[in-house]
Design goal:
The chain is of the alpha/beta class. It has helices at about 35-40, 65, 85-95, 110-115, 130-145, 215-230, 255-265, 295-305; strands at about 20, 50-55, 55, 100-105, 120-125, 150-155, 175-180, 190, 200, 235-245, 250, 255, 270-280, 280-285, 285-290, 315-320. Strand 14 (about 280-285) and strand 15 form a beta hairpin. The radius of gyration is 19 Å and the shape is globular.
């Protein structure tokens, strides 16, 4: 069980987990999706259709292979990019063809790229001007590759949704797919060939207290509450929200960010569907091939050397929620700016 688990969390089992799907959720298999191809076609009891697996093998291909050719130059400077195969699997599973996919914390635009290439329309909101420009460039690049597609990137504060987006989107979004920031810095990249080890591309932007990336755990949770509350007004009744999030270790302390975000999502009126694990390691002949950043490996080794028996992270939690249907589709008090 992941180290941040605690009683009451509906974590999927380690290994191939067959989760119970909410009534009405279709089982769609995308044969072009590396995640789907890595899943067994039958459950252990011999069923003829793939069950809803709670473990998503999102690391079968290396991050570099997943991203090759999909993004414009310079996209690698963003410090925390979602894996394209993970985004593709979530989009295919939880949104219909020609549906609308929204990422309110779009960053460099991985969600938009995956949505457009999957035949969906894509909408993104980004606070940092540089990343908003990069997301626009990547969306335009993906639309050309897909031979069309409608997309929009709005520069603005996602905690003030839905005011930042056209009114015609209200009640029409099929899927919100996003990931939160993780403090001021992330793993980034390293260079050691020309002298001392140097980290770069590890910051979201300049210091700004209004940015979620420059807040602590409580501030990130409060900000995400505002983001999700405003997003409720954009979702269609029964629309899905998928949040990919990992435990957050800061100064040697493990913070349960997945649990904090699950709690605020429920508080704003979203209904929990399932909690999955996106496996970042590759599965090879029944064994796991670790995929990690140099920074992750360095921190893990240093912690173990100091006597803290931490493990190398190889998963992200995937929180799946949905908006109420019918008459129950109403935001919580104080939800979003109008």
């Amino acid at each position: 069980m992941p180290e941040h688990a605690k009683p009451g969390h509906s974590l999927g089992p380690v290994g191939w987990g067959y989760s119970t799907l909410v009534s009405g959720l279709p089982l769609r298999r995308d044969e072009g999706c590396p995640v789907c191809r890595a899943m067994p076609l039958r459950d252990p009891h011999g069923a003829h259709t793939p069950a809803g697996l709670s473990v998503w093998p999102a690391g079968q291909r290396s991050p570099a292979t997943q991203r090759r050719g999909l993004f414009v130059p310079g996209s690698g400077t963003h410090p925390a990019r979602m894996l394209p195969d993970l985004a593709r699997h979530a989009i295919h599973t939880f949104s219909p063809h020609r549906g609308i996919v929204l990422d309110p914390l779009v960053g460099s635009g991985t969600t938009l790229v995956a949505a457009l290439l999957a035949g969906r329309d894509a909408v993104g909101v980004e606070y940092e001007p540089h990343w908003a420009d990069l997301a626009r460039a990547n969306a335009a690049h993906a639309a050309r590759q897909a031979g069309g597609g409608t997309w929009l990137v709005q520069r603005g504060d996602a905690t003030r949704l839905p005011a930042r987006l056209p009114r015609l989107l209200r009640g029409r979004v099929d899927l919100i797919l996003t990931s939160p920031p993780y403090g001021r810095t992330m793993h980034g990249r390293v260079e050691h060939r020309r002298g001392p080890l140097t980290r770069f591309a590890n910051r979201y932007g300049p210091p700004d207290p209004a940015s979620l990336a420059h807040r602590g755990l409580a501030g990130i949770a409060a900000g995400m509450r505002s983001v999700l509350a405003g997003s409720m007004m954009l979702l269609r009744p029964g629309g899905f929200v998928v949040i990919t999030v990992r435990p957050w270790r800061r100064d040697g302390v493990l913070h349960d960010l997945p649990g904090a975000l699950a709690q605020v999502a429920i508080e704003v009126g979203l209904q929990p569907v399932q909690q999955c694990v996106a496996l970042l390691a590759a599965i090879r002949d029944g064994h796991l091939l670790a995929r990690h950043s140099f920074h992750q490996l360095t921190v893990t080794r240093a912690s173990r050397a100091a006597g803290t028996p931490v493990l190398l992270p190889q998963h992200e939690d995937v929180l799946v929620l949905r908006a109420p249907t019918g008459r129950d589709h109403s935001p919580a008090p104080g939800a979003g700016a109008r």
